[in-house]
Amino acid sequence: MSKLAVLDDLLDLYYQLNYHKNPEIFQRLQDVQAWQKQRMQRTHAKQFAEKHNLLMAEYFINRLYGGPDFDALAQQIARLSKYAHKAEKLIPDNAIKTGTSGVELAILAVQLDEQVAMQLLQDYHPYEKLTDEMMRITYLKLNQGEGRLKQLDLLDQLGQSLDKYMRSFVVYAAFKMCKGAALKYNFNIMYEFMQDGFLAMKPLKSAEKFVKDFTAAERQIIGKVHAGDPLPFA
């Protein structure tokens, strides 16, 4: 079986999300994602502001947490199955696994945020500006703690994989060799998704440390929400 087959399952899950067919959910999802990004930038302001962390912080915010071009990326991933045999010859196994983990995280983030968006539509006016209190109440009502913790566990695993596999000169050289083929067959968005990850890692001594610092703070917030803290995002 193709090593890329797992991507087909992830895309099936992605295209089953409700927002694809419902503009109202889509709009509220965008509101939730914008709130999430602003909240994360506040929560991790000190970590994100460190010079060597700037690119990885941007990668987290714009790629792993609901990037604006994920639909276009998903379309390119769906086409990849036609070229799976060639792709597996060009891309090292560990790069495929790590890239797949990044896609899984991005889809899980959208899935969880869509649940929030749909609950908000039930409880509030669709154009009401989101507040921390609205989000706190909605998180509690949905009881997403387990799903959010799974998201952070996957993120920790990705951090380990980035350090273990993606710092290899051989892997990066093989990846750079794929650029021509990626452009030729119109996989430029997918290539950029992975390239941004490589570039974000360069200034870091350890991607795993960056991720662990990030997830530790996020777990504290999840704990506060479900413990009933009235100001978990402060």
From TrEMBL:
The record's annotation in InterPro entries points to:
DUF8198, FFLEE_fam
List the Pfam families hit by this protein, alphabetically. Answer: DUF8198
> Which residues are in the DUF8198 domain?
17-232
Report which superkingdom the organism of origin falls in: Bacteria
Protein name per Swiss-Prot or TrEMBL: DUF8198 domain-containing protein
- Please report the organism this UniProt entry assigns to the protein: Acinetobacter bouvetii DSM 14964 = CIP 107468
